[in-house]
Q: What sequence folds into this?
C-alpha cells in the first residue's frame, strides 16, 4: 500500500512538472508587421518608433510573459504596403494621404479586408513639402517652358494632384506629356535627361537642391492643398488586439514628442535609417507639422483627395469618412 501511495505521488508530481513545463514552453506570442516608407519625410515618425524600440518596450511592460516580435518593412511606395495589408501580411501601414484613401477604399469594397485611418504622422500644411523640379542646368525657367515637355510623377499621389492643378491654372494640362513612375525612378530619369521634370514630395526636393542636381520650378504652396501622411490599420486585427493597437497609438504620440524635444537626436536617427544627409533631414524636419490628430479641416482635405482619385479613375465613389477614427 505504501509503495502504491509513493508511486501515485511520483506520477502526480511528474504531471505537475510536465504541466508547468508545457505552460512555460507555450508563451504567448505577439508578432506585429508594420509597413513604412523611409523615402517619404512625412512618415519619418515611424523611424523614431523603430529605432527607439518604443513599441517593444511598451509591449514588454504590458505583456511581461509574452514573446514579442515587431517586424518593420521599408517599402518604396504606398501601393506595396497596401497590397501586403490587403493580404493580411501587415497589420499597420504608414503612407501618404492618397495611398491611405486607396487602402480605405479597398477596406470598403474587398470582401475579406477592412481598414481604418487612425492617425496622421506628418502634415505639410498649405501645400508644403511638394515641388515640381527640373535639372539645375535645364533651359526650363518658367512653367510656360514646360509646354511640349515630359513630366514624371507617381500616379494617384498628392504630387500628381498638385501637378495637375498647377498645369490647369497655367492652361498647360493638354500641352505636356505626363508619365507615371515612382520618385527614385523619376529623379533618375530627370538626371539622365529622359524626362524634363518631376513632381514629388520631400525629402527629394530638398536633397536634389542641396546636392545641386535640381532646382525647384514650382512649390506645392501654389495650390494651397495640405499634404497629409497617415497611419492605417487592419480593422479586423484591431478588434482582436485592442490593447496592442492602443499601445501603438501611444507610440505615435511619443514619436512626435521625441522629434520636437530632441531634434538633433532625431536627425541622427533618420540619417542612419535613410540615405539622406543631416543637412537634408534637418531642413525637411522644420517644414513638417507632427500632429497625429484628425481635425475637421483634415477630413475636408481627405474628401477633396478622394474626389481627385475618383476623377482620375483610381477608385469609385465611397464614403471615406466612415473609415476615419475620430
A:
Amino acid at each position: 500500500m505504501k509503495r502504491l501511495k509513493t508511486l501515485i505521488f511520483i506520477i502526480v508530481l511528474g504531471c505537475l512538472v510536465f504541466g508547468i513545463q508545457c505552460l512555460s514552453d507555450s508563451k504567448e506570442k505577439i508578432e506585429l508587421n508594420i509597413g513604412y516608407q523611409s523615402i517619404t519625410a512625412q512618415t519619418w515618425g515611424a523611424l523614431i518608433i523603430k529605432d527607439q524600440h518604443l513599441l517593444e518596450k511598451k509591449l514588454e511592460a504590458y505583456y511581461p510573459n509574452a514573446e514579442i516580435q515587431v517586424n518593420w518593412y521599408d517599402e518604396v511606395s504606398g501601393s506595396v504596403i497596401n497590397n501586403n495589408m490587403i493580404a493580411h501580411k501587415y497589420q499597420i501601414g504608414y503612407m501618404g494621404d492618397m495611398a491611405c484613401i486607396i487602402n480605405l477604399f479597398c477596406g470598403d469594397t474587398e470582401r475579406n479586408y477592412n481598414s481604418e485611418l487612425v492617425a496622421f504622422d506628418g502634415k505639410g500644411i498649405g501645400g508644403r513639402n511638394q515641388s515640381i523640379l527640373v535639372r539645375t542646368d535645364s533651359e526650363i525657367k518658367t512653367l510656360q517652358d514646360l509646354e511640349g515637355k515630359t513630366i514624371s510623377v507617381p500616379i494617384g499621389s498628392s504630387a500628381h494632384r498638385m501637378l495637375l492643378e498647377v498645369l490647369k491654372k497655367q492652361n498647360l494640362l493638354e500641352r505636356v506629356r505626363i508619365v507615371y513612375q515612382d520618385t527614385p525612378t523619376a529623379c533618375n530619369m530627370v538626371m539622365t535627361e529622359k524626362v524634363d521634370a518631376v513632381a514629388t514630395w520631400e525629402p527629394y526636393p530638398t536633397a536634389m537642391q542641396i546636392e545641386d542636381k535640381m532646382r525647384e520650378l514650382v512649390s506645392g504652396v501654389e495650390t494651397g492643398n495640405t499634404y497629409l501622411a497617415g497611419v492605417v490599420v487592419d480593422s479586423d486585427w484591431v478588434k482582436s488586439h485592442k490593447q496592442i493597437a492602443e499601445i501603438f497609438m501611444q507610440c505615435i504620440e511619443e514619436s512626435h514628442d521625441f522629434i520636437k524635444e530632441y531634434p538633433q537626436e532625431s536627425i541622427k536617427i533618420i540619417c542612419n535609417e535613410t540615405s539622406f544627409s543631416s543637412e537634408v533631414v534637418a531642413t525637411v524636419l522644420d517644414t513638417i507639422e507632427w500632429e497625429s490628430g484628425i481635425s475637421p479641416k483634415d477630413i475636408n482635405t481627405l474628401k477633396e483627395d478622394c474626389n481627385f482619385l475618383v476623377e482620375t479613375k483610381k477608385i469609385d465613389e465611397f464614403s471615406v469618412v466612415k473609415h476615419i477614427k475620430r
User: Anything to note?
Assistant: Confidence is low (pLDDT under 50) at residues 4-25. The radius of gyration is 24 Å. The domain at 29-125+226-323 is CATH 3.40.190.10 (D-Maltodextrin-Binding Protein; domain 2).
